[in-house]
Design brief:
- About 30% of the residues lie in helices and about 20% in strands.
- Strands 1-2-3-4-5-6-7-8 form an eight-stranded mixed sheet. A six-stranded mixed sheet has the order 9-10-11-12-13-14.
- The protein has one domain: Metallo-beta-lactamase, Chain A.
- Strand 7, helix 7 and strand 8 form a beta-alpha-beta unit.
- With about 350 residues, the chain is α/β, with parallel strands linked by helices.
- The N terminus is likely disordered.
- It is globular.
- It has twelve helices and 14 strands.
- Bound molecules: zinc ion (ZN).
């Protein structure tokens, strides 16, 4: 599916959100391939299809969506990619799957002739960091010129990769059965504080760490002048939130992250528009979309929390169907992130707190 991908670099679409069913299946397959360990040595190599039977997804297409201000959204390369352009160069949030790197680079170059200076990784998953090596190599760090001697020539030959510290740790020391990322894919500028700020392309850009949410290394990225937030996988539109317990995720952190997005965003008239939100997967959103999703996650968390308080086992919780009214919109009985797995992860996540 990846090999057959095509770029539609000239696609100009309105900012009206719309659903992309093809992306949904493709994205889930990619995450499935990673978590199931089906692609053990696949940093940079094509991944094996997941073991679970899945209808073949349509070819992934790369789309460029102008968002607002300096910001574009690239879809179809795995996780959504955010591209900021301006006089200083290009800043990207996430880099998609490794096999999509050439097409991502072509799309970025169609938006700006300036060098790629910064890559920010929202978290460690390969559908968000897979293109790091190839794309960073094609870029140039902002600290070129006279300071090259101080930081080493090699450091100036690639874009700076920023991420929360645990992203670097998990990429360089992966779980058993998975390959370590190549040196060139690793973050070169990490942070351990609650946030980090840079000024680039004439706007303030805030990295905001949300502890123990989708993983333990999640960053939201807020473009203050363009008024756009890239959320990584704390917020997705195509299913229940994925809680990666093995990599330090937790449902309470996901809710904290959704709360933070809603706090940062300011809607325009009638709760529409205003701050625009680029989710980790799925369509472009505004704050009303995030509020609906936030309420859904909180309601399901509260139901399962109550069941735990009553002493119900995981099997009893599943039998009580705490997600039933949301399943037509977000549920799945096939693929990697089934409703069953979501309920299990919420249950286990809440139990860990007791
Ligand atoms: Zn993810």
């Amino acid at each position: 599916m990846i090999e057959a991908a095509m770029i539609e670099s000239a696609v100009i679409q309105s900012a009206v959100p719309r659903k992309r069913p093809g992306l949904t299946i493709a994205a889930l397959c990619c995450v499935l391939a990673w978590i199931a360990g089906a692609a053990t040595a696949a940093w940079g190599a094509p991944r094996k299809a997941p073991a679970a039977a899945h209808p073949a997804p349509p070819p992934a297409e790369l789309h460029i969506l102008p968002v607002q201000g300096n910001i574009y959204m690239l879809t179809g390369a795995g996780g959504n990619i955010t591209v900021q352009t301006g006089d200083d160069g290009v800043l990207m949030v996430d880099t998609g799957l490794a096999p999509m790197s050439d097409k991502v680079l072509a799309a970025v170059h169609s938006l700006s002739g300036k060098p790629i200076r910064y890559i920010i990784n929202t978290h460690v998953h390969p559908d968000h960091v897979g293109g790091n090596e190839a794309i960073a190599k094609a870029g140039v760090t902002i600290a070129g010129g006279n300071v090259v001697g101080d930081i080493g020539a090699s450091a100036s030959n690639q874009a700076t990769i920023m991420a929360f510290q645990s992203v670097l740790e998990r990429m360089s020391t992966p779980a058993s059965g998975t390959a370590a990322a190549p040196e060139g894919a690793l973050p070169t500028d990490t942070y351990t504080t609650p946030g980090r700020k840079i000024f680039f392309d004439n706007e303030g850009v805030e990295l905001i760490h949300i502890p123990n949410a989708h993983t333990d290394g999640d960053s939201l990225v807020f473009f203050r002048r363009s008024d756009v937030i890239s959320t990584g996988d704390i917020f997705v539109t195509d299913g229940y939130p994925i809680v990666d317990l093995d990599r330090g995720g937790g449902i309470q952190g996901v809710i904290a992250g959704l709360n933070r997005i809603v706090e940062l965003a300011i809607p325009a008239d009638l709760q529409e528009g205003g701050t625009l939100i680029i989710p980790g997967h799925g369509r472009l959103c505004d704050v009303a979309d995030v509020v609906f999703y936030q309420e859904m996650v909180i309601i399901i968390r509260d139901r399962i929390q109550d069941m735990i308080k009553k002493g119900m086992t995981l099997e009893q919780v599943k039998a009580a169907k705490p997600t039933q009214d949301y399943d037509p919109r977000y549920g799945s009985s096939t693929g990697f992130w089934t409703t069953d797995k979501f309920v299990t992860a919420v249950y286990q996540s809440l139990r860990q707190q007791h």
